[in-house]
Write a structure and sequence with these properties.
The complex is a heterodimer of chains A (83) and B (392).
Chain A: E1 7-11, H1 18-28, E2 35-40, H2 45-55, E3 59-69, E4 72-81
Parallel strand pairs in A: 1-2
Antiparallel strand pairs in A: 2-4, 3-4
Chain B: E1 12-13, H1 15-23, E2 28-32, H2 36-41, E3 51-54, H3 57-62, H4 64-69, E4 76-80, H5 85-96, E5 100-104, H6 107-112, E6 116-123, E7 126-133, E8 138-145, E9 148-152, H7 159-167, E10 171-176, H8 188-195, E11 199-201, E12 220-221, E13 227-230, E14 233-239, E15 248-253, E16 259-264, H9 281-295, E17 305-308, E18 325-326, H10 327-333, H11 342-350, H12 359-367, H13 375-381
Parallel strand pairs in B: 1-5, 2-3, 2-4, 4-5, 9-10, 10-11, 11-12, 16-17
Antiparallel strand pairs in B: 6-7, 7-8, 8-9, 13-14, 14-15, 15-16, 17-18
Helix pairs in contact in B: 9-11
Classes of the chains: A alpha+beta (83), B alpha/beta (392).
């Protein structure tokens, strides 16, 4: 079953730290309880997002998945604003 | 030239500049902004006194003031991340808070691939050149004399050896591995292909010790006591089983009698090579004992310069980036070499074995031609510093 989300942020091609910087801004624009889907090509984002949500006060990492798009890996993160 | 420490205003440092700073014990403070997991796997290491702090970059994004407050204000900060982006981002934040911060160009990946080439000896007999990969603690050597060059324990990036030979106007005549390595991918077979010179390794190491499968790459078998000539140097093979069954040391002797022992993972300057990476530590430890205390002393004296293929910390150098010391000094400074009975030695070794990195089994497969990794896979296999010595 696909994970539900409210907004999508496309950071394909962006390198560290931009996927996370832009995700932070996008989450600030969500209302509490909403989920952001982030599409990234930076492999480092997988571990970084896991570390980030441990520090961040109002974010839950609902799911992460890797999918193929045009022969390259796409890293998809689902982040929920919790407060 | 003055040695005054001028506060640096540059906003970047190259990996080579970082290495020079570490060698000179400059008062550097490293702020590593990768996530905790990556930091735990490996990091920039230098002398024991080097100070390093890990604050992931996302902590600066979450709470900038709190993260900045954890960084010392009175130091030269070098910010390090995987590639470069986050460290540049954090260094700018720190500078905005009036801290003296620069970032490492190319990140820790570039640091991991830095090679350092410098002479151990340069005299009438020829040159002994050290080619080190400092981030990994890997060291290799070349003997260059009268237009001939032998390479000992070459590392994966072969251009440094080919360039060094070409700049010296020498042709490569032998490629020697002291053993089949477990921690890094040997440049030996590739150099043999590039130069046409034979690649030498002991046949006992051409069988994978865990898989019990034979090598699939071309090599020449070595005999204990066999001798070679490299220009004015004579090079003798000394079988030194223990770390591996086929490990050898190469004893190079100049016409004036000065000798150099390339020990591979035999004795190190502050430790020696662990005997358990073949999966049979208890069986191989007594063999290692005989190599260290009975076989080796027959061939060398206190003036023989010991040149191992690894170090664990930069403190093992001579203060100038050379990982070399006379045997007499090594015997005095190396706690692992103090005289022990075979029973004491066995207890000491088996009580000080560090973690067995799982990728070491695969790296040996690569080194005897059983598997052929891509460049990216090779880089992954070689991540971090070697763990070939006993725990200290």
């Amino acid at each position: 079953m696909a994970t539900e989300f409210d907004q999508t942020l496309d950071v394909k091609g962006a390198k560290c730290p931009m996927p996370l910087v832009k995700s932070r801004k996008a989450i600030n624009d969500l209302t509490v309880g909403q989920t952001l889907r982030v599409l990234a090509t930076d492999r480092g984002s997988v571990a970084d997002f896991q570390g980030w949500v441990k520090t961040a006060k109002n974010i839950e990492l609902v799911a992460q998945e890797t999918v193929q798009e045009n022969g390259t890996d796409l890293y998809v993160h689902y982040l929920k604003r919790t407060s | 030239m003055t040695t005054t420490n001028v506060p640096t205003t540059a906003t970047t440092r190259t990996a080579a500049e970082l290495y020079a700073a570490l060698i000179q014990s400059q008062p550097l403070f490293i702020l590593d902004v990768r996530n905790e997991e990556d930091f735990a796997r490996w990091r920039v290491e230098g002398r024991a006194a080097l100070e390093t702090l890990n604050i992931p970059y996302f902590e600066f994004i979450e709470d900038e003031a709190a993260a900045v407050a954890r960084v010392p204000r009175d130091r030269d900060i070098l910010v390090v991340c995987a590639k470069e982006g986050s460290s540049e981002y954090v260094a700018e934040i720190l500078r905005n808070h009036s801290l003296n911060a620069a970032h490492l160009e190319g990140g820790i990946i570039t640091w991991g691939n830095l090679y350092d080439v410098r002479d151990i000896a340069d005299n009438a007999a020829g040159r002994i050149v050290q080619i080190a990969r400092p981030a990994r603690g890997d060291v290799s050597f070349m003997i260059i004399s009268d237009g001939q060059a032998a390479i000992i324990d070459p590392l994966r990036h072969t251009n440094y050896y080919l360039d060094t030979a070409r700049q010296a106007g020498a042709s490569v005549t032998q490629i020697f591995d002291t053993h089949v390595h477990a921690d890094h991918i040997s440049g030996g077979p590739a150099l043999a292909q590039a130069t046409g010179a034979p690649y030498y390794v002991h046949a006992y190491d051409a069988i994978h010790p865990i898989d019990m499968l034979p090598a699939q790459m071309p090599y020449e078998h070595l005999q204990d006591g066999q001798t070679f000539t490299v220009g004015q140097y004579s090079v003798k093979v000394i079988w030194f089983p223990g770390h591996t069954l086929g490990q050898v040391n190469y004893l190079a002797t100049a016409p004036d009698g000065q000798s150099y022992l390339f020990t591979g993972d035999g004795i190190f300057l502050k430790s020696f090579g662990r005997p358990d990476l073949g999966g049979k530590g208890e069986t191989w430890t007594p063999i290692l004992y005989e190599s260290i205390y009975e076989r080796l002393p027959q061939h060398i004296d206190d003036s023989t310069v010991i040149l191992p293929s690894h170090f664990s910390l930069l403190d093992e150098d001579d203060g100038q980036g050379r990982f070399a010391a006379p045997y007499g000094q090594v015997r005095r400074q190396n706690d692992a070499l103090v005289p022990r009975s075979k029973e004491e030695f066995t207890a000491y070794v088996l009580g000080n074995l560090p973690v067995f990195p799982p990728q070491y089994v695969e790296i040996k497969r690569v080194n005897i031609g059983l598997v052929h990794p891509t460049e990216e896979q090779a880089g992954e296999l070689e991540l971090g510093r070697n763990i070939c010595a006993l725990s200290q």
